[in-house]
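Troubleshooting log. The previous structure file for this entry was overwritten by mistake, so regenerating from the original sequence record. Sequence copied from the archived sheet and checked twice against the printout by T.R.
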Amino acid sequence: MRYRVAHTTTYGYDAPVADSVGVGHLRPRALPWQHVESTEVRVTPEPLDLGHDSDYYGNAVTYFQVVEPHTELVVEATSVVDVHPPAYDDAGLARPWERARPLAEPHAPGAWAVTDFALASALVDHEATARDYAAASLAPGRPLGEAVLDLVARVNRDFDYDATATTVTSTVADTLARRAGVCQDFAHLTLACLRSHGVAARYVSGYLATEPAPGRSRVVGADASHAWVAVWVPGSETWLMVDPTNDQVVADRHVTVAWGRDYADVPPVKGVIFTEAATSTLRVSVDVSPLDREEPCP
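Regenerated output below.
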């Protein structure tokens, strides 16, 4: 599938901002199953400095600084990407899930490089409740793929999607207590379940191409950032990517932007401002629109 992704973040302030420094994870990753045809980040007002780099995990990062006094800051990212279904390693997924624990299997190929994805992180504690919840899926010797898919199906079934149940700072314990949340919460919960048993898994941020209801037109800008989970498959170049919010294996409808230990590693935009403003507003508009293969880049 070929997509045009447009992500616009608008900040408003009740007093001028003298200096704004920001960093964004907005440009999709180039991957074996994902070709980035074009990508651009624009900042308004015009920044004094705008640069691009890669972070520790190889994600594309944009840095900017705006010194022109402003009461509104707009960060717009536009990309065109081709996404293909990843080729998963059936043999690797058939091995016992215990093999995907880098701390218990330190001599497994690549174990040293994924150890931090098995450890607790800022937003993913090794919650005892999460460990107990996951135990029903992670039976001894169960194949890795089967165990992960069972866990994802249970999270999807047992937890309600409710945008009012949590906030961006909610913890795994909050999600477990309320039995509800959004994609970020479900990804963090799934990570806590797996990591508390030693399995290496990472948080993935990006976009999900959605389809309008039958008879309805697409609403431009009504999409949103999305989050899912990738589980280490020892000996394979492709991790098992699963979407607990939708109970599915990631294929060609998910556009990968960045990955890390949790949301705190890869927020779309974050930064620091110098201002006397007392209040601020935030508006986010996301649009993921399918393109024909022959259609020229917008």
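The domain at 2-83+267-291 is CATH 2.60.40.2250 (Immunoglobulin-like). Archived copy saved in two places this time.
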